[in-house]
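Supplementary Methods, section 5.1.

A reviewer requested that the exact input to the structure prediction be made available. We therefore reproduce it here, unchanged from the version used in the analyses.
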Amino acid sequence: MTWLTVTSSLRKLAVIAYPEPVADHLDRVVAQWGAERPDLDVSPMEVFGRLKRLFRLVDAELNRTFAEHGLDAPSFDVLATLKRSGPPYRLTPTGLMESAMVTSGAITQRLDRLEARGLVTRTRSDQDRRSRDVELTPEGHALIDRALPAHVANEHRLLAGLDEAQKAALIEAMRALLEDLGEGSG
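The structure derived from this sequence is encoded token-by-token as follows.
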């Protein structure tokens, strides 16, 4: 049995017991480095290697669900951001850009593609006539209303191997790491 203690800077958050893990590729890499360079602590490779591998696997699974709805991840992100903004489901391109954490060029390309498909419209802003607002069309509403439940169900499926305590520990560990790296409030 392996025991995992999740801590934040000042407090212990959880102690969780896990069965011994099955060795994987990264365990072998770390063991090889241990033999080759015993003076070097390569334990971070276990974390970052698994994060990279997990990202690739999860990204492929998420994209598969988006594709079933004729979307890619960036398009889903824009439609979902507009939907969760609430009525009138309208934001400025800058608001979308900040939410998606992308450049203005990237958001413009996304909006061009979505507008060409009739999923969003761009209209003059009521608050600032020099600015344009982006709004979901009825077709955009219908598409995100179909895609969102499938996306959430897919995320649940991807996390099905973790119990609630494991999910909570993972969330807290990632939150602590993000905070340490300066992204805690983002």
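The domain at 1-9+73-179 is CATH 1.10.10.10 (Arc Repressor Mutant, subunit A). These observations are discussed further in the main text.
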